[in-house]
Amino acid sequence: MLNLRWNYRYIFFLLSLLDILAILVFYPAKSQAELPKSDVSITEVEDNKAPEAVVNQTVDTSIAPVIRKKAPNDLRERVTPVSQLLQVAPPTDKKAPNNSAGQVTSVSQLSDVKPTDWAFQALQSLVERYGVIAGYTDNTFKGDRSLTRYEFAAGLNAALDRLNELIATSTADLVKREDLDTIKKLQEQFSPELAQLRGRVDNLEARTANLEATQFTTTTKLIGRAQIVLGELIAGNNVVSKRPAPHNATLQGSTSLRLNTSFNGKDSLAITIGGGNIESLGQTRAGLLGTYEGRTADNSSITFARNTLILSGVRYRFLPFPNTQVNIYPLSDGASEIGLSGPINPYFESSSATGANGISRFSRRSLVYNYGDSGPGIAILQGLGKQLQFGIAYSAPNGNNPTPNNGLFKGRYLALAQLIYYSSNRNFRVAATYVNTYSPPNTIGFSGTNFGPAVGSNLVNSTVPGAATIGNLYGLQAFYQVNPKFAVNGWVSYAAHRYVGRGDGNAMDWAIGLAFPDLFSEGALGGVLVGMEPKMISLSRGVDLGAGAGRADKDTSLHVEAFYQYKIGDNIEVTPGLIWITAPNSDSSNPDSLFAWVRTVFRF
Which GO terms describe its cellular component (predicted)? Predict the structure, then answer.
């Protein structure tokens, strides 16, 4: 049953019917008290919204709130919920229903009505003067609840019965024709507004019925994202062939569709499909530059054909306890699913629903988050009070493969643990991260290697043929919002590799990023990042990763990146950017490389 809502106009209408006769018949010298006016604010209705613990900046699981904006200055603007008022009192000459309280004789008997309430005088008159309002059985008025049409009809009927009683007990001399004409005129004045309201209610009922009959689902929201990328290598050589790389402009694109479903408001099932033809400028050793350095964040999967829709992510999240979030994923990435990287570096890596803001993969994440590929696993995020958060994740990149040296527990794996501290105002956060990872001999992952972060130098991403590889990674990341228009973030990571039976190697990376929200325009974002992509800083004498036994990266390569994200409305943004790599592949004999990248994103 559709609910109506009480407001002072309805109450005034009832009082007018009663008071005009009372004024003219019984109290000719007494004037009617004014009713206080109500303030109407915007009402926000949030349906199927996932709780705060389920929503993080890495994977967007919330269902957008539906906002009911303030109506124009007509009858709708004056409707204020006061509400599901009461057991309406029957006429004074009839017995009250069994489920109603005894007829109250004073408004003070209603425990939840206060003299400061805006409708107090109106309610006092309806209760004490005319006896047409009764409370609930617990002596409450419940003024903040919705009023059903049945209850409104009962209240109106009680008022009209009382009006008829007043007329019937009056004499012909006291009730004049012009008084009845006044009442009739008042009813006529209200009739257009009531008819208009009735039409709107009928139209709303029809639209609601049509929506219920044709909607896709009541529990699922579809989120779409498409992007067009214009890119070009302005300068640089292929580090393997030592020859100049082609400098050709390209126009490419990709799209993704995400279905977010909540079954009980405290869980989230996300299914993502997508595809495209974007070629990263530094995605594989066999690519344009022959190195993983400068790898752009916008790229298609190297394991699937271009322009093919693929299932790129599946995960289910739920809250077994108020401060515990559990993520189970047959296809995803543990570092992303646990929601650990996004909150530490929010301006360079935003949620997966909106995509990365930074141009490169390196600007989004430190070394500790980049080992391992997509696969099945589980992640648990535990809140420890209001300012601490502890998370663990386990992923097996080849966990869907039942062949030897694969599977969920006998193949490649990555185990991650992290502790995050937030300041009370959330302007500062710092995280300590540990990762243990293992790769069996001769296994190949999505990045084209069986081990490594898939960013940085070729040696960091290399293994010894026939040897298993173990990694212990340590990272420290921090973020500080200096003011609303300036923030700084940074990290330093260290990795200890063990090539089983052969020797050890050590890798490292670091970065400092500056973000400028609302730069030149509200909603815009500027970013600058300088850092050293992962490089092999030392290597045992008996280990040869392709540069010779015991030879690590000999020079330091710097990554310099700048971008400016400009919003065109709420659903379109354009992000031009540059990536400058000095001494590519940590070799000063290679000339610097420079990429230009312009990304346009459409959200729907």
Answer: membrane
Domain that holds residue 333: 220-603
Cα–Cα distance, 394 to 392 (Å, whole number): 7
In a domain, 224, yes or no: yes
CA distances from 19 to 109, 159, 496 (A): 23, 11, 87
Say if 443 falls within a structural domain. yes
Q: Tell me how many domains the chain contains.
A: 2
Look at residues 451, 447, 458 and name the one whose alpha carbon lies nearest to residue 553: 458
The answer as to whether 229 is a domain residue is: yes
The answer to whether residue 111 is domain-embedded is yes
pTM, entire model: 0.67
Least-confidence region, from 182-191, 291-300, 516-525: 182-191
CA distances (Å), origin 310, targets 49, 60, 222, 353, 527: 28, 20, 17, 17, 31
Tell me the pairing of strands 388-395 and 413-422. antiparallel
pLDDT in tens, 417-473: 999 999 998 899 999 999 999 988 876 655 555 567 778 888 988 888 888 899 999
Placement of tokens 């500080």 in the chain: 480
Contacts of 84 (CB under 8 A, 6+ apart): 3, 142, 145, 146, 147, 148, 151
Instruction: Report pLDDT digits (tens) over 125-173.
Output: 777 777 777 777 778 887 777 777 667 767 777 777 777 777 666 655 5
Q: DSSP string of 160-185?
A: HHHHHHHHHTS-TTTS-HHHHHHHHH
Same domain for 206 and 229: no
What's 344's domain CATH number?
Answer: 2.40.160.10
Q: How far is CA 86 from CA 80, 112, 138, 154, 603, in A?
A: 16, 12, 11, 10, 47
Last residue within a domain, chosen from 173, 195, 214: 214
> What are the C-alpha distances in Å from 385 to residues 388, 393, 438?
6, 20, 33
Shared domain check, 259 and 201: no
Nearest Cα to Cα of residue 437 among 460, 416, 469, 414: 414
Helix (H) or strand (E) holding 211: helix 177-214
| Domain end (from 167, 195, 214) | 214
Largest separation between any pair of C-alpha atoms in the chain = 120
User: Are 290 and 250 in the same domain?
Assistant: yes
CB 443 within 8 A of CB 416: no
CA gyration radius, the chain: 34
**Integer Cα distance of 80 and 6 in angstroms:** 7
- Do residues 482 and 500 both lie within one domain? yes
pLDDT in tens, 515-562: 999 999 998 999 999 999 999 999 999 899 888 999 999 999 999 999
Same domain, 493 and 344: yes
Kindly give, in sequence order, each residue whose CB lies less than 8 Å from that of residue 349, ignoring residues fewer than 6 positions away.
57, 58, 341, 342, 356, 357, 358, 363, 364, 365
- Who's near 211: CB < 8 A, 6+ residues apart? none
